[in-house]
């Protein structure tokens, strides 16, 4: 399989790209909606689940602002600006960042999220500040400013997120930035934490398998891609990487099946196209006797 050996040396392969470029919009909306739907009683410390209740005076306008931003980013920005002047605290800046992100205006989104994080810190809301630094990091990733993204993710982790999914996903996002910055050892450190904190996120296992494959740690790559397949069997990027690892470990039948699945799942995606190209370079399978 000499024609596929360059897979081991790829610094930025299609399956890695799928992780690096994954959309954050749905996750941002989900988190923002969850925050707005939290118990709107008076301000309270972090609950046992790690979430912070929104004070009643902010809950309704925050949800209204998010709704405006989802319907029309410009309307959301206008709502947030007015609300900020009227005393919307860091919640108004949070919504402003969300609205800018919806419009893919990444530079002002970064500024709004960072300002919201700083204001949350001044209010003593360190967990909320951490979440806002993480959103600033994702906006910086989207803008292509990788050093800023890493700095914002570091700031988020330094503010003390509780153990669990959120901390794991910030470590995963940090690992994405570090992969793009060609710092694989540091990325591995964050990935190991991400896998422990967010073991049900298939993207963590996918990126971990890809890094392991690129460094020649094939046993680790096999174990981690198997977990990604288990968690996300219908993801073309996962199927592509499953095939890449299989062909490099002399399992051509598994590689062929995995790449065919990637093509079937998403023929027009980068993963589907890469899988189709790999299939075209495999020897034609012999007919069964």
From TrEMBL:
<dbReference type="InterPro" id="IPR019734">
    <property type="entry name" value="TPR_rpt"/>
</dbReference>
<protein>
    <submittedName>
        <fullName>Tetratricopeptide repeat protein</fullName>
    </submittedName>
</protein>
<dbReference type="Pfam" id="PF13432">
    <property type="entry name" value="TPR_16"/>
</dbReference>
<dbReference type="InterPro" id="IPR011990">
    <property type="entry name" value="TPR-like_helical_dom_sf"/>
</dbReference>
